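Private note to self, pasted from the team thread so I don't lose it. Backbone tokens:
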């Protein structure tokens, strides 16, 4: 399938954005994250040396707030660009993201992996990760559910991914017209040479199926 000039421009813009996002994620993790952790350990040290109950309780509360902030910064860093995506690949990056996602939102994600994992070009891995990320993010925001399922199906010539929940559901046509996130999911998969299909019903949940050729 031939790629149009408009698609080439969109692909270039997305690639440039990803490079900048990667830089910001690194600085957020290595700079802000490390500084917050140093403050957190400092508060714990102070708490251990304080005897007054009121002061000790205050320091403990501050340490808990800081611990929650560190967790949020870590999730934000991974959402921007998971380091494992570049070093270990798509599936480990998804596993790492799900772990942080569950601890942050309290939503259990059942991950299924079927077939033999195959190498994927980095730009395609990023596209797939972003679509999964958007889908899970929407579940946390709108689905009103405590469980979700994410399935990887490795076939000889393609990878199929399914993200589903049994939450509120929504009107797909109306939502795609109103949501830049859903439209971006379609756009990313088209640029990667794949497909994205969203199905949902009010009160019955949502299923997102994406596929990408591997040849």
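Design output:
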């Amino acid at each position: 399938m031939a790629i149009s000039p408009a698609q080439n421009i969109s692909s270039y813009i997305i690639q440039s954005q990803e490079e900048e996002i990667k830089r910001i994620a690194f600085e957020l993790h290595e700079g802000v994250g490390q500084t917050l952790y140093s403050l957190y350990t400092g508060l714990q040290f102070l708490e251990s040396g304080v005897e007054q109950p009121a002061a000790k309780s205050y320091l403990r509360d501050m340490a808990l707030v800081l611990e929650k902030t560190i967790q949020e910064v870590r999730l934000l860093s991974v959402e921007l660009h998971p380091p494992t995506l570049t070093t270990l690949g798509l599936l480990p990056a998804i596993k790492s993201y799900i772990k942080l996602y569950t601890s942050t939102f309290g939503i259990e994600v059942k991950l299924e992996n079927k077939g033999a994992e195959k190498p994927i070009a980095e730009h395609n891995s990023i596209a797939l990760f972003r679509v999964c990320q958007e889908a899970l993010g929407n579940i946390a925001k709108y689905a009103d559910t405590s469980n979700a399922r994410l399935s990887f199906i490795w076939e000889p010539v393609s990878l199929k991914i399914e993200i589903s929940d049994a939450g509120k559901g929504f009107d797909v046509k109306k939502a795609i017209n109103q949501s830049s996130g859903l439209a971006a999911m379609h756009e990313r998969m088209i640029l990667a040479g794949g497909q994205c299909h969203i199905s949902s019903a009010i009160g019955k949940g949502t299923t997102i199926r994406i596929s990408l050729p591997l040849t």
